[in-house]
Amino acid sequence: MKKNYLKMLGVLCLGVFALNVNAQITYYVKTDGAGAAATATTWANASKDLQDVINAAQPGDKIFVAMGTYLPNRPANNLTTVDAANRDNAFVLKNGVNIYGGFNGTEANETQRIAGNSSTLSGDLNGNDTEETTANAANFMTQNKADNAYHVVLAIGINANTIFDGFTITKGDASATALSTITVNSELIDRRLGGGLYILGSSASLKISNVTATINRANGDGDASGGGGSSFYVNNSSPNIENCIISKSFSMHATPKTEGVNYGSGMSIVLSSNPNIINTVFSENFGGSGGAVAINGSNPVFVNCTFKLNRGKVRGGAVDVRGSSPTFNACLFSENTGSNSGGGAVFNYSGRPSLLNCIFYRNTTATSNGAAYGSQNGNYGAIFTNNTFFDNRNNYGNNTVGYSAGIYVAAVGNSASYADKTTYLYNNIFYGNTAQYNSNKNTIDLFVISPALLAAFNNNIIQQTAYTEIGTNNQINVDPKFISTTPGHIAFLAPGNSSPAKDTGVDAHNLSASDFNGRTRKNGIIDIGAVEYYAVLPVSFISFTAKATTSGSQLDWKVGSETNNKQYLISRSDDGKKYNLVTKVAGAGTAAVAQRYSFTDQTITSGTYYYKLEQEDLDGQVNYLATQVVKFALAANNLAVYPNPTKGNVIIAVTAGNYHQYSVISLQGTTVKSGNIGRSDTQISLNLSSLATGTYIIKLGGET
Predict the structure, then answer these.
(1) Is 78 exposed, middle or buried (0-12, 13-18, 19+ CB in 10 A)?
(2) Low-confidence ranges of the chain (pLDDT < 50)
């Protein structure tokens, strides 16, 4: 029996955009590629020499790199010459050329990539790095690094739209023992800095996304001049950095289980650099001043970033601030350690940071300074708004008055660059922080060298008793009644319905739309702390998953119980911002046992889709549950259409025998072109130049 069915292949856009698309070339790179760079324009003809392909590409072109490990084989200052063992070898990015990693080696565009395909750029030129085997060694410290490349990737003078996406950068070793440079794109590159990715003189046109930089090393340690940056070194540049992981960066001076002394081991941001850093994780980076990040003479913005398990031997377990005014919004500082001068999470040496909607959890120091936030005499104050400081620990071994597990405010400097040098605290929670000696209980949460340094101390919940006479509407030694104190819980450090933090903040001090978790910031009056009141849901939510299948996006979710639950709402977005309702799924009403639900969205084409799951009560109250992302590749159905958009000709690639006819349909439903597909056909070429500018749908008919 024959049954006709239709598969939506894609949406074609005909118009002026095709002029740009037609001018672009996509190049392909594979570890076993045998093609020349100039002709590597299909996967079948892919080259294995990534830098040679970068050399051949022109602005507007793309490069797709399949999974596997790639070594730089050309000196950064002589890219036309192959010299496989030269430590100056690096992958040098090119203005306007977009480079994507993470391909399986069959995809037609970057949206078809799936997680798990790792394209690794390694500085281990001789392939002989091994794990350190001495007693008590940190497991990522490796031997045989002396012959590694000084830098793995260089982005020098990038000022046109350029994307670098989907790579792992590892085993760069910027270990020159004295000032030593090479010249790349007319700029001097220091061999002591930026072992992983070295960015110099580049603008916001450079976008770095979905990059993991791990196990990179640097020698530079001059915090006054801005050294270090083992994994990322950002100098006079303002790139957009998003969805990255920077981990296990360390110093040439480090020995197993020690931090070394370099400046900003994970990332060093210096000399008028103003990057935007979003959804990026900094973990297990070991340095001197700023175990994860050091900021000098720059004003970066960090949004939704995580700083966890970083260590700073000199100061600032996670971040060190010098002559800068960085902003941190909705960031997590967790389990970082600052030695010597303190600042388990953040140390303000001589700047003025702003911290908003952040959580400081279980950061530690063993000095007479702050475990969560420390500062040096000569700093220029800070602004703290709607942060939560919980379970931070000062383990200082002397019974000395004047140290803190929370915030330590030192004397300010006299630079005219900072008109306001005082510190502000609005709507913050301090709870459960501890110091080794109980006699310092009155300064566990906050210590201030001089009360005059506090310009405002209002609407905070704080356990200690010192300085409370300075501010207004502070709640002293009260329990904020968090719903959960377990990290990772959906309501971690969220105030409950009876919490004194609920609706007791001041709206004017925080204009952000979202809290730490990305939920709506104000439900009435703003709450105190990083997290808004989180209502107990009428469903006990367990999980929500989404995956691409041949039938569409399959969504599955599970709840432990339901109470007066009307239905579930599924909405979809192609950018993670604007959502449209896809369907409603009836709930079980009230059920004491686990319930499973499933829905398949068959109305999608190729691309990345965000699915939001919400629950609606019988009384109409809607509650957010979770969001999942699906990368839906038409390659799963062995289909492809290109180029898209097009100016005229388009190719439909199919598996022979799967389809017998095609139709091109306008959005008004009119079939403007149709034809048959032979059983042995794998490509159909269509000339659409006669069609009016617009959007069309291609449908394929098959038989079963």
Answers:
(1) middle
(2) 1-22, 224-225, 255-257, 634-636, 703-704
CATH for 539-632 (1.10.10.60, 1.10.443.10, 1.10.630.10, 2.60.40.10): 2.60.40.10
How far, rounded to the nearest angstrom, does the alpha carbon of residue 424 sit from its chain's CA centroid? 29
Residues whose CB is less than 8 angstroms from the CB of residue 243 and which lie 6 or more positions away in sequence, other chains included? 209, 210, 278, 279, 280
Q: What is the pLDDT of residue 548?
A: 82
Q: Where are the domains of the chain?
A: 5-17+636-702, 67-308, 341-536, 539-632
Residue 504: CB partners within 8 Å, gap ≥ 6?
459, 473, 475, 525, 527, 528
What is the dihedral sign for C-alpha 293, 299, 300, 304? positive
Residue pLDDT, tens place only, 43-97: 999 999 999 999 999 999 999 999 999 999 999 999 999 999 999 999 999 999 9
Nearest one of 215, 296, 214 to 263, comparing CA atoms = 296
Tokens for 567, please give them: 């239905």
The tens digit of pLDDT for each residue in 518-555 reads: 888 988 899 999 999 976 678 888 889 998 876 678 99
Question: Under a CB-based contact definition with an 8 Å cutoff, are residues 405 and 445 in contact?
Answer: yes
Sign of CA dihedral 356, 361, 366, 368: positive
HEC secondary structure over 418-448: CCCCCEEEECCEEECCEECCHHHHHHCCEEE
Rounded to whole angstroms, the Cα distance separating 76 from 274 reads 26
Answering whether pTM is above 0.90, one says no
- List C-alpha distances in Å: 426 to 40, 270, 364, 504, 668: 58, 29, 23, 11, 56
Element of type H or E holding 23: helix 17-23
